[in-house]
Amino acid sequence: MGICEGRVVIVTGAGRGIGREHALAFARAGAKVVVNDLGVSRDGAEAEGTPAEQVAAEIRAMGGEAIADGADVADFEQTGQTLARTLDAFGRVDVVVNNAGFLRDRMFVSTEESQWDAVIRVHLKGHFCLARHVAAHWRGRVKAGEAVDARIINTSSGAGLLGSVAQGAYSAAKGGIAALTLVQSAELGRYGITANAIAPAARTRMTEGLFGGMMDRPADGFDAMDPANISPLVVWLASSASAAVTGRVFEVAGGEISLADGWRKGVSVDRGARWQPEEIGAAVDDLLARAVPPAKVYGAR
Fold first, then answer.
1. Mean pLDDT within 78-106
2. Do residues 99 and 18 make contact, with C-beta atoms less than 8 angstroms apart?
3. DSSP label at 294?
């Protein structure tokens, strides 16, 4: 038996790249998989085939169970239909893996409103819609007296944790996803639902060409940027074995898994009374002298 035997998993953006590897890994682990993908180009601008159906067919050819879903993850009504199709096909849902996204990279001062809106919509709202429907379903089951062992697994990014030059909208959305994960964990734990996020580094349509030769396949040996390297952590987080883990952001690349250490209160100074503007400079100098220097933004010199 696989680690996710019998569990029903919805994976968004599962037609290509990391999402495809998640879907295949879940099938190998015994899960029934809903393969969601809108089938659009790297920038989300136009349709490019039917990758969701192709991955679902690949899973069925392996002897697994899968259905394809073409909902827009940032459309609240369509994602409600995704939940309904999942329940019709499999009778239950145990895990949501929010993975779908695209890039429209521009320097901040050159970013157009439409580009900003599109990126925030698919990443941040796209992490809200499906999870909101499914979380309400799980809460309803609990209120009806059933036990729930459910998972939300979100996809943030190093850009969301540290920032990334020419990726203002993407970084803002991915940072928002990390914060949303913490809120979901705090609010939903009482219902048997955990929420965690990953910040993956792998070779995909979104990363090829952005990092020079870093994403190239090696001639031999371990391929550290293979997107399949990301999925084992996601499969484990989706399993019953991870029930005690929630509210965490894991960075994963190659064979390395690390816990991201998020915002927390750092060094401080307390005057015990209201500050005068003229006093602030010396106080800030003292704080900066005692603080841990911030990590550099990706792409910054």
1. 97
2. yes
3. P
Does 58 map to a domain?
A: yes
Predicted confidence (pLDDT) per residue in 187-216, tens digit = 999 999 999 999 999 986 554 455 455 556
Structural domain contains residue 272: no
In this structure, what are the phi and psi dihedrals at residue 4, rounded to the nearest 5 degrees?
A: -115, 30
Catalytic residues: 157, 170, 174
pLDDT (mean) for 134-154: 98
The most distant pair of C-alpha atoms in the chain lies apart, rounded to whole Å, by 71
CATH of residue 39's domain is 3.40.50.720
What SS3 state is found at 140?
Answer: helix
pLDDT at 49 over 80: no
The total number of structural domains in the chain stands at: 1
DSSP string, 201-252: E---TTTTTTSGGGGSPPSSS--TT-GGGTHHHHHHHHSGGGTT--S-EEEE
DSSP 275: P
Q: Does any domain span residue 230?
A: yes
Q: Which helix (H) or strand (E) holds 285?
A: helix 277-290
Cα–Cα distance, 45 to 209 (Å, whole number)? 19
Give φ, ψ of 188 to 5 degrees.
-100, -10
Domain annotation covers residue 54: yes
